[in-house]
Each structure stands twice: as structure tokens, then as C-alpha cells.
Amino acid sequence: MPAMAPPERREHTRHPVRAIARVAQANRCCSVEVVDMSFNGARLNLQETLPLDEGEEITLTIELEDFDSPDVSDVLAYQSRKLVRLRGTLVHCQETDSGLAAGVEYRPLSEVDQVLLTLLLARPDG
After folding, report:
1. Buried-state track 6-24, b at ≥16 Cβ within 10 A, e below 16
2. Read out DSSP for 63-94?
3. Burial of 74 (0-12, 13-18, 19+ CB in 10 A)
4. Which pTM value belongs to this model?
5. Model confidence at 76, in pLDDT bands (50, 70, 90)?
6. CB atoms closer than 10 angstroms to residue 57
7. Is the pLDDT of residue 11 over 70?
8. Which domains are assigned to the chain?
9. What span, in angstroms and rounded, lies between the C-alpha atoms of 119 and 121?
């Protein structure tokens, strides 16, 4: 009898996303690449060692300059910042064959961030 697959622990489906972002906590910050994300979590690729520990509260700021989605552009037209800010926790950080990977659980910081995140995840190109 084949082994049963473990139950999915994620509440929301992950969508492929390629975006440049910043992870920050107090005066510590590093650049990351967002690989995939859902409404409450993301997987990140890091070019350098993350100066943070698992369990720490962080802010994930995703730059939206390169996103060419009419819905996102419409929302961004009404504000000066071209980014979405998410507050969360660093869940894990580990070495992989392609470098360092980290997992983050988060929540949007404002209603605008929530709308932008929803539109970003609804893009047909992922």
C-alpha cells in the first residue's frame, strides 16, 4: 500500500512570483527575491546570509515597479509608493542547492497593501 501524502499545512495556495523585495527588522535589512507567495506567506531566495533568526518579526517590502498589470497600475496611480508592505515572522531559513531559502508568514500592513497583494496574486501570469 502506498504511503499517504502528508496533509497540506498551507491555508492558501502559493503562486509563482518573481519580485525584488527587502526584509527588514529594526536596523537590519537585506535584499531578497520572492519566488512564490500566497495571501499569508512567501518563499524567498537570498543572495547573502540573512542577518535575522527564525521566529523574528520582520517587514517584507515588495517593489512593484516592474509589474505590468492594469489592475495593479490602477491602484498604484492613486498613491506615491510603488510597493506592498507585509508584516510577519521569519519561519525558516536554510541552505539549498541553489543558495539560501527562507519562508515568511505575514499579513498586509494596510488596506491598500491588502488590495495590492490580492491583485498581485490574481495576475494570470503568476
Report:
1. eeeeeeeebbebebebbbe
2. E-TT---HHHHHHHTTSS--EEEEEEEEEEEE
3. exposed
4. 0.77
5. low
6. 12
7. no
8. 15-122 (2.40.10.220)
9. 5
